[in-house]
Amino acid sequence: MTPNIAVLPDVVANQIAAGEVVERPASLVKELVENALDANAKRIEIQVEGGGKRLVRVSDDGTGMGREDAVLCVDRHATSKIKNADDLRHIDSFGFRGEALPSIAAVSRLTLETAEGEEVGTRVRVEGGRVVGVEDHPRRRGTTVEVRTLFFNAPARARFLRSVSVEARAVNEVVTGLALANPEVGFTVLSDTRTLLELSPASDLGERISGLWGEGAARTLLAVDSFAHGIHLGGLVQRPDAATPGLRRALLVVNGRPFREPSLLKAADRAYQTTVPPGARPWLFLELALPPGAVDVNVHPAKAEVRFRDGAAIEDAVETGVREALTRVSSAATLDGAPERPRLVDRERAPDAQTALFVPVHAPGPPPEEEAEGFAMIGERSRLFQLHHTYILAETRDGLFVIDQHAAHERVLFERLMTAFDEGGQPGQRLLFPLTLSLPPAEYQRVEELQGILERAGFEVAGFGGDTVIVHAVPDPHPWFDPERCFREMVEELTQGSELVRSARTQHERIGKTFACKAAIKAGQHLSQEEMAELFDALFATELPWHDVHGRPTVVRLTTTELARKFGR
What span, in angstroms and rounded, lies between the C-alpha atoms of 475 and 427? Predict the structure, then answer.
């Protein structure tokens, strides 16, 4: 009887492996660039023709290889990155699977040129997985891998490739992500006759972002630098007032490796809660540093995903670290973009390191206690000025704050009420003459549904028959508070479900946001010196003083640097 099971030839096995690793030209560019980074390259050039379907060439100035290694590296299961199975738990390099080059060679015509130093280099030619030539080749230290006619022997795979422009764009996106994760390396991307990317080595992530999208984009970013429970979170996130709907640029890196994880982006978005308008998508460039044993990078053939030993702790670290950055004075809106582009910590990767190290080379900013002094009032109590009965002007150590009194009071009232909810609620002031209010049916029903939460917010409400309610007690947030107007506007907004209401995560937060919005002092309200001082102190006692509940700025900074520039000093 003829057996049904047979051992596949190496060429067929390599083509199957290639199906996991090489999905399109962009995926093979990722593999080759990561190999160059592992070889400590400082400049990498990527050239594609026909979107990479006709040609992909990656050249670097890394360590290069000798003749024996050059021949072995295109052999299946050959790798310099691991020696035994235990090494898989402590991977600190990009290329570890040991199948990228042979897999690529199995479905293309591949030429590898490499040299370790001044001696004559080596050229290895492979066609469809078979080595067809090994010869001397003069070149400088480094490696060039040239891949021609991708999927020439797998036409079914070739038919699934997209148009030239789509494939070229995918290549550029892959290199952009690797360039952001490795700002100290220079990158060039050429597509046919066009230069898609030209990046010189940068000193930090901020400078790399400036090189990609301009100095204006870099000036809207805040440094993140937090450490908790063995997890170090660094990077840059967008200042809330600069966040807009639409295109989001985002990058996640763990121990130097870019990866995808939607749950971590959602965790960062939670940190922005009540600091950005609904629908805004702030830019995020975040890097996690943690012991390699805490992350499994061997869960995805293309190494695009990872698995964390404690995913909940990672999400909490991201949310907490980003939130911490948003509490600092640098999070406030400015009239001049940002006084300085934030300088970040650099990542240093050592071959024998058990953890990824963050080595400070540029301080991301003053520590929180010094930063707090940076916006302290001049003297024990400098005079505050009210402008147009709407804005409060306050002199600080490095310039001027312009505070929107309504937005500032919104933030104060919201955080006070949310704290009160945690402690059982805030008391209401009983009215000598209760309010009798007739409401539309939908609003009456909403009041009945929310009666318990409204009472904890300070509104004691009872039904009076039909569509009428009686309000026996109300909060007392300030002397000019109009309880009837506030209550009606709150109920209307809660019933109609405005964007402010829909953006809240809980019913308590919905009540807190609408109350803060409707109860806060209005623009045009005159404030005495004592009242302005009280509001100023209350604002900077909150967790997030720089943004109101709508995500609008409460404070706009004008620095002495900008003033000097305007006056030509």
Answer: 7
Provide Rg for the chain, Cα atoms. Answer: 30
pLDDT digits over 234-249, tens only? 999 999 999 999 889 9
Q: In angstroms, rounded to a whole number, what is the distance separating the alpha carbons of residues 376 and 372?
A: 6
pLDDT at 118 (0 to 100): 75
Residue pair 511/296 in contact (Cβ under 8 Å)? The answer is no
Domain boundary among 199, 223, 253: 199
Q: Which residue type sits at 520?
A: A
Query: What phi, psi does 114 have (nearest 5°)?
Result: -150, 155
Angle between helices 405-422 and 507-519 (to 10 degrees): 150
Predicted pLDDT of residue 371: 45
Per-residue pLDDT of 457-470, as tens digits, reads 999 999 888 889 99
Q: Encode pLDDT of 106-152 as tens digits.
A: 999 999 999 998 778 999 999 998 999 999 999 999 999 999 999 99
**Do 185 and 69 lie in a common domain?**
yes
Q: Quote the CA–CA distance of 458 and 437 in Å, as a whole number.
A: 17
What are the φ/ψ torsions at residue 115 (nearest 5 degrees)? -155, 140
Residue 169: give the domain boundaries. Answer: 10-199
Query: Which CATH number is 528's domain given?
Result: 3.30.1540.20
**What is the SS3 assignment for 351-381?**
CCCCCCEEECCCCCCCCHHHHHHHCCECCCC
25 and 110 share one domain: yes
Q: Indicate whether 162 belongs to any domain.
A: yes
